[in-house]
């Protein structure tokens, strides 16, 4: 609990699914503004807008597309293709910058375990294998991560049989001290257990015309450093701030105006996001003992480093420069570690 209030606010651990649900359930006019399960198959650029073609044959017209469409982003692929249209390979499918170096089991259980206290977080390290688990107020969440010798070149949707096979190969992986995967697997929620690749990487270009990327479509890391969703939120915050400022100056911006906004957004966030991605790459490789002397380095680091000092010296400097929504009045809080972001004094924005 040493760093929870260092910035003036408590921290909250929750799954992406629960975050999305909370945002959706508190969104006004969601019945008319949100269209679920609407898969976009093409984005058509118009002179003063965009037209999105849906898989079901529907069409949606708008001013811009903010593509938070995940690690396999069709919008990112389109941006790459448009950006290289003049090259000899412009008609070929672009290579994804997101490399699937790991295969992971994600699962949860709401069953009670008296030997796992609320708030407990555990991590196991090993040759090619690592795990992270946490008991939160609503469930026990766990992830087992296996390094792939050769990253696959094609996307794959794993079956229940694939998932069970991997569990059978790793039954004695430790999730919590004295608690193995096979014990938790028996009481897992079957509908929330999945097998997925975990990719790492950052998009070369984040925008084209009136289309701009956000979240995992722009920058992807493994779950190990726990910064994927937060990095996406902070990038989205920067983008919204810049769009808001641009619309105040010019309510009907041209494509050139929007391209300038998107370029500033990419320039502002790309370096920071890439830093977080690289930290994740290094950390994930280290705890799976990948590379020469990795095991020795990992064991030495865990024996020598004070977790509190590690958070304060490495993570806090990154957190203190986090962007906030700068156009929403909010009376902010200060902790023992000062914020470096200058908002509308003395207000800060709530995310």
So how many helices? 9
Second-tier CATH architecture of the largest domain: 3-Layer(bba) Sandwich
Low-confidence segments, given as residue ranges, are: 345-351
Q: Report the end-to-end length measured between terminal Cα atoms.
A: 22 Å
Instruction: Say what oligomer this is.
Output: single chain
Tell me about the largest β-sheet: 6 strands, antiparallel
Number of strands: 14
Decide which structural class fits the backbone: alpha+beta
Percent of residues in helical segments? 25-40%
Q: How would you describe this structure in keywords?
A:
single chain, 351 residues, alpha+beta, FAD/NAD(P)-binding domain, D-Amino Acid Oxidase, Chain A, domain 2, 2 domains, 6-stranded antiparallel β-sheet, 3-stranded antiparallel β-sheet, 9 helices, 20% strand, globular, disordered C terminus
